[in-house]
């Protein structure tokens, strides 16, 4: 076991885990944001650099600080290591620059993008972005491509996180798409316009942190904050069969895998569950999905995200009558 201190909070963690994994064990503001790392996908991480942290002390054996910010998803903890994330102005400034780079070619599609409301780039931009862009050159653009019966590729929105490539590599029988070209000319594609039709290809949609890969069966049907997510399951011979059903009224608009607090799929699901089973009678309903109370998805139905045992009544300020009954 190794003792590591992150933002003045000490925790004992198993040897060999990364700084990011240690931070997630603490939780809260200590956790660095991520755009490319995915805990269930091997070799993911190290591409976007949004999770950088400052290592003030390398270890007890070698207390020298690391000279530059390091990617927390790729750096292993050492016993006695001291790390700064949210409490380091240097890291906050550097992360702001990284977000600026991520947004260089990203279009202002939020008003029409299906990912709006559950987009990690929106959250990252709100927390670390700037009001105006200093990029005066023409942004690169791409035509929309259908890379299968169910997936539409908006390459203009892609931030090259490589998550979809990792999903195809590790979940499907044969990867039919990948990263073409290099540098500023890099793009996701199938090269000869093959159809991505593997039975687990739909998980690329869930893994995409932005709106680059969208569900063609859900496009422009509704905003996520107008839907009601419910946990459900079914007996499936291909996958776990545990999903989230997104209702609008009595209609199931889409089916996704269940995500944890970091927006990562807990168990991947097959395309049959995702695209072919969109009727309530196909599922055993378990109850409302667990959604963060900070998410816009809980608008108008906050009880989904705020169980009674987690509700906190704030104390009244001096002179306040906000929590008291006013008698006439």
Can you offer a commentary on this structure?
The chain has six helices and 14 strands. The chain starts with a strand and ends in a 40-residue tail after the last strand. The protein has helices spanning 19-26, 89-102, 120-128, 163-171, 203-207, 271-276, and strands at residues 2-6, 9-13, 52-57, 70-71, 82-84, 145-146, 151-153, 178-180, 187-189, 213-215, 228-233, 242-248, 251-257, 284-288. Strands 2-1-5-3-4 form a five-stranded mixed beta sheet, sandwiched between helices. Strand 12 and strand 13 form a beta hairpin. 33% of the residues are buried. It is globular. It is an alpha+beta fold. It folds into three domains: 2-101, Ubiquitin-like (UB roll), CATH 3.10.20; 120-131 and 140-215, Alpha-Beta Plaits (2-Layer Sandwich); 224-309, no CATH class.
Please give the largest β-sheet.
5 strands, mixed
**Number of DSSP strand runs:** 14
Total discrete domains: 3
Question: If helices are DSSP runs of H or I spanning 4 or more residues, what is the number of helices?
Answer: 6
**Global outline:** globular
**What ranges have pLDDT less than 50 throughout 5 or more consecutive residues?**
304-328
- CATH first level of the largest domain: which class? Alpha Beta
Strand content range: 15-25%
Radius of gyration: 22 Å
Order of helices and strands: EEHEEEHHEEHEEHEEEEHE
Q: Would you give the CATH topology of the largest domain?
A: Ubiquitin-like (UB roll)
Q: Please estimate the helix content.
A: 10-25%
Helix-and-strand structural type: alpha+beta
Mean pLDDT: 87
In whole angstroms, the N-to-C terminal distance is 63 Å
CATH architecture of the largest domain: Roll
Sheet with the most strands: spatial strand order: 2-1-5-3-4
């Amino acid at each position: 076991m190794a003792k590591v201190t992150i933002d003045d909070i000490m925790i004992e963690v198993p040897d060999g885990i990364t700084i990011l994994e240690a931070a997630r064990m603490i939780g809260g503001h200590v956790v660095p944001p991520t755009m490319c790392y995915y805990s269930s996908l091997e070799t993911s991480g190290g591409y976007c650099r949004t999770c950088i942290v400052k290592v003030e002390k390398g270890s007890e054996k070698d207390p020298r600080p690391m000279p530059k910010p390091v990617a927390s998803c790729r750096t292993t903890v050492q016993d006695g290591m001291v790390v700064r994330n949210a409490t380091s102005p240097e890291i906050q400034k550097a992360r702001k620059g990284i977000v600026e780079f991520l947004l260089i070619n990203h279009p202002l599609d939020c008003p029409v993008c299906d990912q709006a409301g559950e987009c990690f780039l929106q959250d990252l931009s709100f927390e670390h972005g700037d009001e105006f862009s200093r990029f005066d050159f023409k942004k690169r653009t791409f035509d929309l491509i259908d890379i299968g019966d169910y997936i539409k590729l908006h390459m203009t929105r892609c931030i090259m996180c490589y998550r979809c490539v990792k999903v195809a590599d590790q979940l499907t029988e044969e990867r039919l798409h990948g990263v073409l070209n290099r540098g500023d000319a890099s793009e996701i594609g199938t090269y000869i316009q093959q159809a991505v039709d593997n039975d687990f290809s739909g998980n690329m949609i869930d893994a995409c942190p932005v709106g680059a890969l969208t569900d063609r069966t859900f496009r422009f049907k509704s905003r996520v904050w107008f839907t009601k997510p419910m946990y459900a399951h079914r007996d499936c011979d291909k996958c776990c069969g545990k999903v989230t059903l997104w209702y609008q009224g009595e209609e199931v608009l889409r089916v996704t895998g269940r995500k944890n607090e970091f927006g990562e799929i807990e168990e991947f699901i097959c395309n049959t569950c995702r695209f072919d089973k969109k009727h309530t009678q196909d599922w055993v309903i378990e109850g409302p999905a667990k959604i963060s109370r900070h998410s816009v998805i809980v608008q108008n139905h906050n009880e989904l995200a705020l169980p009674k045992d987690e509700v906190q009544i704030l104390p009244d300020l001096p002179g306040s009558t906000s929590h008291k009954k006013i008698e006439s």
